[in-house]
Amino acid sequence: MKNPVRPFLDYQNVFILDGGLATELEARRHNLDDPLWSAKLLLEQPDAIRQVHSDYLWAGADCIISASYQASLPGLLARGLSEAKAADLIRLAMQLAIQARDQFWAIMANRRGRLRPLVAASVGPYGAYLADGSEYTGVYDLDEVGLLAWHRPRWEILAQSGADLLACETIPSLAEAKALRQLLLETPKMPAWMSFACQDGTRISDGTSLADCVQLLNDVPNLIAVGINCTPPRYLPALITAVQNHTTKQIIVYPNSGEQYDSVSKTWLGQSDPSEFGTISREWRKMGALLVGGCCRTRPAHIQQIRDRTRPLIS
Asked: Is residue 211 in some structural domain?
């Protein structure tokens, strides 16, 4: 299995991910107050998703992540879709990202300074389907066996969707990491990364040591990177160190903007400065995290700031 990220690291010593998909859709006044979250627009306004993908590519992303994070078969069946229609909608999430990438590359292919971007299929956690906040606690009503059975149908669709790699993201629990590890071993030709949601500088959301999670994954050949997402930037230095001390795999980080959500007022507190985000992203890279992007509350401007601080290593 070839590592699809390797050419980017050889060329520019960084692999730049996109930013928050739902964040940007909400900024464009799309109402995502729905159990399907951003996947709601797969049903209603798919062109809006494709446009956001495109805008992240023009901002400088080397990889865009599909809108399948919260598009699960059970969630779509609950919306009234047949199993076949639900599977088609998950495939549509990938098709929109691939179309955006191909349209971008048709324009950029003859220009210097960029490599053909990749498309990652988002594999969101079980808690995203529940839409009850458990993706940030890891407190589930399913054990490892149940999680394996829940993930497998969507995994099989996404692994055959044309994605360049799979993005197992915002994983909050050790049991879910174990379930996804098994699926990775069952699809050895499909490269992937796994990133965890963390509650502090050492532990993922369910309280398990991040170091323990990383060590669990070291023997998975097609897992090309492991790291952190959907976590405040202030925890990243300690978390990057924890990952680096326990693996030789590439380290991936795409944190939130640093703003904090007030569940009482249902508003975000604090400020997000794209320039500052770009500046601190250089520190993450210096520590060894070479796959870098943004998660909730980050937008194309944040990704542009990371790109602006990147220069190709070769001509």
From this structure: yes
Do 176 and 125 contact (CB within 8 A), yes or no?
yes
pLDDT per residue rounded down to tens, the chain (315 residues): 899 999 999 999 999 999 999 999 999 999 988 888 888 899 999 999 999 999 999 999 999 999 999 999 999 999 999 999 999 999 999 999 999 999 999 999 777 789 999 999 999 999 999 989 898 899 999 999 999 999 999 999 999 999 999 999 999 999 999 999 999 999 999 999 999 999 999 999 999 999 999 999 999 999 999 999 999 999 999 999 999 999 999 999 999 997 776 545 556 555 578 999 999 999 999 999 999 999 999 999 999 999 999 876 654
Range of the domain at 63: 6-308
Count up the domains in the chain and report the number: 1
Residue 49 structure tokens: 């998703």
Q: Is residue 282 part of a domain?
A: yes
Tokens describing residue 146:
């149940």
Residues comprising the chain, all counted: 315
Rounded CA-CA distance 174/266 in Å is 29
Query: Which CATH number fits the domain that encloses residue 45?
Result: 3.20.20.330
